[in-house]
Specification:
Elements: H1 6-14, E1 26-29, H2 34-45, E2 49-51, E3 55-59, E4 62-70, E5 76-78, H3 80-86, H4 90-112, E6 124-128, H5 136-147, E7 152-156, H6 164-168, E8 174-176, H7 199-211, E9 244-251, E10 254-261, E11 268-273, H8 283-294, E12 298-302, H9 307-310, H10 313-316, H11 319-334, E13 343-349, H12 351-360, E14 369-373, E15 391-396, H13 400-410, E16 417-422, H14 434-449, H15 452-457
Parallel strand pairs: 1-2, 1-6, 6-7, 7-8, 11-12, 11-13, 13-14, 14-15, 15-16
Antiparallel strand pairs: 3-4, 4-5, 9-10, 10-12
Length: about 450
């Protein structure tokens, strides 16, 4: 095992790519597994991040055999030799391409949210994947990048077979791979965590990269000078930049992964409790977290369960278990140097809101404020009257069942509380402007209740 996960692989890979820093490169990750690796590389190099969308054109009667590939902008690369050998006609090729083009366009919209792809013409392009096995996908990606006008192509992967250079041929101008073990059977054997990357994580990686200032360097390829593993200093823009670090929270026998971001002069830190089926990579929670960071609040996004635990669906809905994890993570948070003396708040989404309120009801919780987004406060049950933290319940106006649950919960809450309904929003707040409104409401609530005066008055 060489890597903890894909992010760790990206940090290690970035150490071999220092010669590209400041060279104006564009980093392209291969969806889906290559994108978290590419995100870490792009952050280390201070480079823009995009996806390299490639769809193989399979022979109609033998889909595993590729006769070409397509990319965005109408780019198509065809293997004339395979076409001749298989006798595929131009009409058959066009039919396969039309289908794959629909899939490619759909994924482009999903991943970028309507943003245009980064132009490659005349630029150095760094193509990144989580590893190379056969090399066919990587070769196709390099060919697509070349067809889109890239002047120079560097293909970089964290691990590959010893003969990987021969497999790739001349499709890339430069090949970079720090690890080429002799006993190579599959990419996943070199990762402790090689869980499948989902679309939400790809979206989140692109969104986070898009938030960085152009050319900004927030490298995490090594610890700060203080030697404590924290990123120190601040790359400030006028809005107030954020400084974050990956975190491993050890609770009992479980190691929970997360990201702690604490802007300079933060008034407090908000711990996120995600809902069932989600994770620290939730694009909605990350969107809200970014807004809170801009408002001068710290955030901790972390997974309440390990992947093995999530496989048991009973754990996902065990509010007591999740609340206990949240309580323990809060204890860990208060011991971190950058959080010393800061107020702590909870942001719970869906079922995570039940866990947040359950944890906030603990006698020694000392939680400054709670915000619930589309939450299930009813899951906290009889513990609701014990919550002392001011609580904001945000619900979509078209999420009728959840509105009723939140209204009922208000009758159990004895603390300061408010129900805010976002008109026209459904449970996931996917409608235009809905999540922005959630972020605004949450920011105001936390800011109001995390001021030094409010913090001191509450006896913290």
């Amino acid at each position: 095992m060489l890597f903890m996960d894909r992010r760790d692989a990206g940090h290690q890979l970035a150490a071999s790519l220092g010669h590209l820093k400041g060279a104006g490169v564009v980093v392209l990750g291969l969806p889906r597994g290559g994108v978290p690796v590419a995100a870490a590389v792009a952050e280390a190099l201070g480079a823009p991040l995009d996806v390299c969308l490639v769809r193989k054109l399979g022979v109609p009667f033998h889909q595993e055999l590729g006769m070409g590939a397509i990319g965005e902008g109408g780019v198509r690369v065809v293997n004339d030799e395979v076409m001749r050998m298989t006798g595929v006609t131009d009409d058959e090729l066009a039919g396969v391409e039309a289908h794959e083009r629909q899939v490619l366009d759909s994924r482009a919209r999903r991943y970028r949210g309507g943003r245009a792809p980064i132009g490659l013409a005349g630029r150095t392009v760094l193509v990144v994947d989580d590893g190379v096995a056969t090399g066919s996908t990587a070769r196709a990606a390099c060919q697509i990048a070349r067809a889109r006008g890239a002047a120079r192509i560097v293909l970089a992967v964290p691990v590959a077979p010893r003969d990987w250079a021969e497999r790739l041929g001349t499709d890339a101008d430069e090949l970079v791979c720090p690890h080429t073990p002799r006993d190579f059977y599959a990419i996943g054997q070199f990762y402790l965590d090689f869980a499948q990357t989902d679309d939400d994580e790809v979206v989140a990686c692109l969104a986070e990269a898009g938030d960085r200032p152009a050319g900004g360097d927030r490298s995490r390829s090594g610890p700060a000078a203080g030697g404590d593993g924290r990123t120190s200093g601040r790359a400030g823009d006028e809005a107030g930049d954020k400084v974050g670090r990956e975190a491993s929270v050890r609770i009992g026998g479980a190691t929970l992964r997360g990201r702690l971001t604490v802007p300079e002069g933060a008034a407090g830190v908000v711990v996120f409790a995600h809902g069932s089926g989600s994770s620290r990579h939730s694009p909605r929670n990350r969107f809200v977290a970014a807004g809170l960071n801009r408002a001068g609040l710290g955030t901790l996004l972390f997974d309440l369960l390990t992947e093995e635990e999530e496989a048991d669906r009973a754990n996902v809905f065990d509010t007591g278990l999740l609340a206990g994890r949240l309580t323990d993570a809060t204890g860990w948070l208060r011991e971190q140097p950058e959080c010393e003396g800061l107020a702590v708040g909870y942001f719970g989404a869906s079922t995570g809101a039940g866990a947040a309120l359950w944890s906030a009801a603990e006698p020694d919780a000392r939680i400054a404020a709670v915000v619930s987004r589309g939450g299930r406060p009813d899951l906290a049950g009889a513990r609701l009257p014990e919550v002392t933290a001011p609580t904001l319940l945000i619900v979509g106006g078209d999420d009728l069942q959840v509105i009723d649950l939140n209204r009922a919960a208000q009758s159990w809450l004895h603390c300061e509380n408010r129900l805010a309904v976002v008109p026209g929003a459904t449970h996931l707040f996917e409608e235009s402007g809905a999540l922005e409104r959630v972020t605004e409401l949450a920011g105001e609530w936390f800011t109001d209740h995390m001021t030094p005066a409010a913090h001191t008055a509450a006896g913290f």
